[in-house]
Amino acid sequence: MSAQKLPAQLREREKELACVYRLSRVLTAQHPVTEIVATVADTVREALSHPELAIVRVRLDDVEAVSTGESLGDTTDGVSPCKDGVVLSAPINTTRDRVGELRVCYPPRHADGTDRDATPPQLLEHERYLLEAVATLLADNGERRHAIDDLEEAVAAENRKTVALEEVLTQVEELRKRNLDEIRTTIEAEILPVLSRLEGRLREEPEHSLLMTIRRSLQRLGSHDRSQYRTVRNRLSPREFEIAGMVASGVPTKQIAEILNLAPATVERHRHSIRRKLGIRNESINLATYLRTDDVEGDRIVP
Length: 303
Fold this sequence. Notes:
The chain is of the alpha+beta class and about 300 residues long. The protein contains nine helices and six strands; from the N terminus they run H-H-E-E-E-E-H-H-H-H-H-H-H-E-E. Helix 1 packs antiparallel against helix 2, helix 3 (about 125-200) packs antiparallel against helix 4 and helix 4 (about 205-220) packs across helix 7. The longest helix is centred in the middle third of the chain and has 77 residues, at about 125-200. About 20% of the residues are buried.
């Protein structure tokens, strides 16, 4: 190999490396497809051994760009000028499908557009490798853009689901409040008056205490804020919850024992267990008063 040929080949390799480096930077950024295909067409043509005689066409996702050497004038009418010339194409394939094509040709014409007898330049082997490398970069770019599109669509779909779920939850909450309002209206208008008349006819204190417990339970049933009720119910056993309801209604231990057919000592043990489970450590706090207040919120117990 002559000393004159070596620098020329080195210059060609340098152009190719510069081409790959520039396109690697362009394709790793999120540029519009129109900008990408135009940059690729110009950059690949400049990296060829005869850029002034070449036509480079890039098609990616139905977007095309053509770069024409200055010796060809305004020849940008597709591949037809290369019909009798030298043509090389490299497909741009992703794992899904073919998304485009990279095509290079040397048409057999002079700058004035007349046909020439001279044979057009040949695409060298290393230029074929360059086109394949650029096609691979474009395919990787296509894969990345498709992945981003899929991710954005998935996020948008999840956002739509979230909005729909929030709307459903809002409707459910509104329906719950309407139902509670209807229950409270029914209790106040139809049930509580009956209980009041029944209380006037009863003479025994235990019966009065039971009616008071029923009244409080019905009033609590129609309340929008039932956090205390739910917390007490979840932390106590069924028997303890029954006794807690009577205690909240002001029924003394002796009457609770008579109503439930229990020994007073048993009722006292249940009362101590209720205080312990609800976290009432201060002995000065009255259990009945505590159960009638809003000191219980969610899982937090105010001692």
